Amino acid sequence: MVQIKKELDQLRKSNVQLIAVSNSEWYSLFKDEIRNSIAIEGIFANRNDLLNVLERNKRTDSEKTAAILGYYEAASSVYEYANNLYKEGEFQIRLSDVKQIHTQLMRYESQLGTFTGIRGDFRREDVEVTESGFTPVKAYYLNDVMQLFVRWINQKLANSEYDKIKLATLSHILFETIHPFRDGNGRVGRIFLSFILIGCGYINIAIKGTTRDGREKYYDALEIGDDECEDMLRAIENGQKITASQVDAWLENSNIEPLQKIIEGRLRDAIKRLQNVDITQIQPDGLIPLRDVARFYNYSQDYLRNLINKGNLPAQRKGKLWYVKVRDMETYLKSVSE
Asked: What global pTM score does this model have?
């Protein structure tokens, strides 16, 4: 992770707009983040849906449109904000940051009527999360718990020796276990996760959610790590006073390794994409190694090889490597979207 930090700092020196929609490489990564994150919530949008909503001023299914626009506006603003705070050495968390993410995220769903709560306001009722193995904190304790959450994060941010990837991982598990909002907790939590990563000098990530396997790995990783978080929340509900300095003692045995591996893997993928030349700028008939096509278009090599074997994607084999023309890949994507 130290190497990734160095590589990102080097990119910042050569491109002051590293995290901005005007950066085509970053924007491509960001669109994949949106598509994957809303898919984890069961809202499936293909690349063409995103292009229609974000770039062509067209609309797709109303629920998809609301989810895409809400995520885009919430995440893009706080990511640039976190990046600026990092560059100035001023990154800290405020409770209002968390609430602002939710306010923007749920804007269009509120207009559509699919979200009927108060945007940016913590839930006022106790909830159960369907098909989950945890119980969120009771609504009565939410303000105190969230203030503790923010104080603990800021304490760790101030500690230069504390592993910031560990902090991002553990805070994400704790946030999802607290479940502070009536709806939108998963997306708010993933945006907040990337917000912390960016504020600590890293980059936003796209946790895989468009496949069942990706979603299950992510949910399993959260469930594996949330037992100690639940124990602490139950202690607070039973009247125990816990300070920010004591949170570590409660969470020190949390098994965060599965989720941390996911986060680290997605960070590595993100930095590779940011370092790559934009494939769409290459001659359409230029042959590109399959591994580079897979990385740029966010498909697995196995998936692309399967397309090749079925005859759905033209390719040429040179030695042990497959090569694909940009034109052929774009044609396939267009056929899928249609």
From this structure: 0.83
Token pair listed for 14? 């050569």
Q: pLDDT tens for residues 253-275?
A: 999 999 999 999 999 999 988 88
How do 316-318 and 321-325 pair as beta strands?
antiparallel
Residue 213 Cα distances to 192, 194, 209, 219, 305, angstroms: 23, 22, 8, 10, 19
CA–CA distance, 66 with 60 (Å, rounded to integer): 10
Tens digit of each residue's pLDDT (9 = 90 or more) over 236-258: 999 999 999 999 999 999 999 99
Domains of the chain: 2-275 (1.10.3290.10), 279-337 (no CATH)
Q: What token pair was written down for 223?
A: 């469930």
Which residue, chain included where needed, has tokens 């370092």? 275
Per-residue DSSP letter, 94: -
d(CA 313, CA 15): 35
- Three-state DSSP state, 233: helix
